[in-house]
TrEMBL record, chain A:
Sites of 4-aspartylphosphate modification: D52
Protein source organism: Actinomarinicola tropica
Pfam families: Response_reg (PF00072)
PROSITE patterns (UniProt xref): RESPONSE_REGULATORY
GO cellular component, one term: protein-DNA complex
Record lineage: Bacteria, Bacillati, Actinomycetota, Acidimicrobiia, Acidimicrobiales
Domain of life where this protein originates: Bacteria
Protein's recorded name: Response regulator
Signal peptide: none
Positions of the Response regulatory domain: 3-119
Molecular function terms from GO: phosphorelay response regulator activity; transcription cis-regulatory region binding
UniProt keyword terms in alphabetical order: DNA-binding, Phosphoprotein, Transcription, Transcription regulation
GO terms (BP aspect): regulation of DNA-templated transcription
InterPro entries reported for this sequence: CheY-like_superfamily, Sig_transdc_resp-reg_receiver, WalR-like
From TrEMBL, chain B:
Signal peptide: none
Cited SUPFAM superfamilies: ARM repeat
Biological classification of the source: Bacteria, Bacillati, Actinomycetota, Acidimicrobiia, Acidimicrobiales
InterPro entries: ARM-like, ARM-type_fold, PBS_lyase_HEAT
A molecular function (GO) term: oxidoreductase activity
Pfam families found in the cross-reference section: HEAT_2
Protein name per Swiss-Prot or TrEMBL: HEAT repeat domain-containing protein
Amino acid sequence: MTTVLIADDDPDILELVRFKLETAGLEVVATSDGQSALDAALADPPALAVLDVMMPRLSGIEVCRSLKSTPATAGVPVMLLTARSQEVDVERGFGVGADDYLIKPFSPRELLTRVRALIGRGDTA
Amino acid sequence: MSDVLVATLAVLTATIVALLLLTAGARTVRLVAARRRHGRVQRLRPLVAQLAAADDDLPPTLPPGLTHHDLATLEQVALDVLPKVRGRGRSQLVDLLVARGLADDARRRLRRPGPVGRARAVLVIGALGIDTATNEVVGALSDRHPEVRIAAVRALGQLSSAQAVDALVACLSAPDRYPAGLVGAALAGHGTRSGAALVSCLHDGPPIARTVAAQVLGATHAQSARTALVDRLAHDAEPGVRRAAAGALGRIGSPRSVDALVEASLHDPSPEVRAAALSALGDVGDTRAVPVLRDAVGHPHHEVASSAAAALTRVGEAGPAALESLAATAATRPGRYAQAALAELRRAGAGTR
């Protein structure tokens, strides 16, 4: 089963993203801080990482930078989730190799569409 | 020791013990209630996520067996989730909460005496986006309690009617009653819808209103406000307004603003405005600005020189090339600014693919 790593310190968003992806047939590994996300990704590289930008311990930008500079995870697509006021972080995120970003507030349906595009699973239910 | 003294001490001791027991008891009750509420939030959050993530067109329904406490918690969790989602997910939650009577309840509570209840009612109306209640929210702007007025400003940022925009723009003229930054954030939530009213405010409002209007026009990338912002940059009496206008022109990013920004960077009497104009030239990124930016790196004012050097890093390939040539003269003041800007550019690019 395709695994997606999600990291967000907001439990409401974590639950919402988890529900949306799991009902689409994806396996979800959920973490609430950047360091745990990085540890989980390095231990078992996912098919995609969906990262909040502002998180405790390590920001989504720093996690993305680490994933892209580690050979085992360099190919993992990364989507950043960010508030509109942090658009400058999105620019930095693309600078460190992020593949896509979604601005909060977000549409769960749009999130799933983008996730499917990134992991190349157009057949996901 | 007299009997009276002994009796007094006994009464005092008993009173203190009773107060301690009462305090401990009240604390325990609060802790138990908070723990139960946390448990309910954990249990009901997946249900709210399910409602917000649903793709079908059926009206949202709740499972049977939810207690009164469950329903109150569910409503609060749903209100917390509302600002985080948009599209169908958001409308599902709004439909559910309106069907549960939250909008009607909030409108009733607006007339109650307690300011906390009124502020919360205003926030609920804003979160649910009940445009038909705009009049009541505008009325709350005149509330004698500041927390209600502030809640009304936040709520007006979430309502989509033109009346909400006009009321917020009017708030800019009374910064002692409505924090200008908060009003600006609420106006930014309206995007370009607030453009015309803000342009009018750019000319007629007090200095703080003109400053915030310029900032919001920049944040919303209001192309239609470019001419008005150029006019304020050239003619406003307040340096703060001119600085905000320069920043906004940078965020709008039109090459047609280059001449006005160059003019301000060379001739504005305030070094802070000159620095803002130079920074905006970097944001626009037009290579016509490179000679002006290069010369400004030699300006004696620190903010002007450092803004010019930083701006050059953002102007295509010509900007960094100009910095390299300045940095070759490391012993000079411009050379040091150029080196610092190039070092920052390298640091920012260190993690790129």
